[in-house]
Amino acid sequence: MKFKYILIILLISYFAEGFAQTRDTIYWHDATNKTDINGIHKIVHHLTDSTNKTVDYWKGNIVSIKYTGVLQGCSTSIETDTLFNKQGTEIKGIIANEVRWLGNSKDCDSLLLVKTLNIYNKGTLKNVFKYKQVGEFADCPCGTWSLYSNGKIQRKQEFGSCYDSTLENITLMRTEWSPDKKYQLELYQEQMPFAMPGQGSDHMATIILKNKRGEVLNYISSNSKENTMYRNIEIRWDLDNNTVWYGKARAFDLEKKK
Known about the structure:
Elements: H1 2-21, E1 24-28, E2 40-48, E3 51-58, E4 61-71, E5 74-77, E6 80-84, E7 91-101, E8 111-121, E9 124-134, E10 140-141, E11 144-149, E12 152-158, E13 170-177, E14 183-190, E15 205-211, E16 216-220, E17 236-238, E18 243-247, E19 250-253
Antiparallel strand pairs: 1-2, 2-3, 3-4, 4-5, 4-6, 6-7, 7-8, 8-9, 9-10, 9-11, 11-12, 13-14, 14-15, 15-16, 17-18, 18-19
């Protein structure tokens, strides 16, 4: 009888662990099987219904741990993210995330994310950068950027406030309307904080697709997978196929982004 109770407890523990593991979603990049740790690209842990912990890997080593949450239906970075070198043995950077709303509005376009990025080299603080992101726009430098040497600040660079809606590194260049005037593309040029010689024209683009009422349907920026240089923008409307092309092999569907 005692053995039977022990067996029941073990079975309950086994199934409980199995159900707990189903809350994690594992992504393999080029792994051939589940034991190929070198092929794992990332593992997403569903901490709650609205909070995820994402662990990114490089050849079996952890290179970053990031937290995302959902606020009023808007996905954003929360808590503190940690970055490691590709050997997974040294902290490369720590990102402290601060989320708040601009004004009284609670829509995603009014969500303000302020990130303080501390960069380390062999455990020693080297740089402190601050960025803000408003709604769907790309990161914008803000606050005070600092360069450290031997634990002391050697150089500072001042940007604008981190707590308003002003985006100092992005400029609306033009607006393109569809032939039927039902859609519009806003074309922005992103300014680089530090441009290397010869890179003056290599500005990234932010492109926002809106309907005629001004509602955001889709967008890309330097943070997007399908990002593009501003100089490479090529607009072509294909209303028969419900598509607008903004570059070579790059297009938006003319519907609300999921």
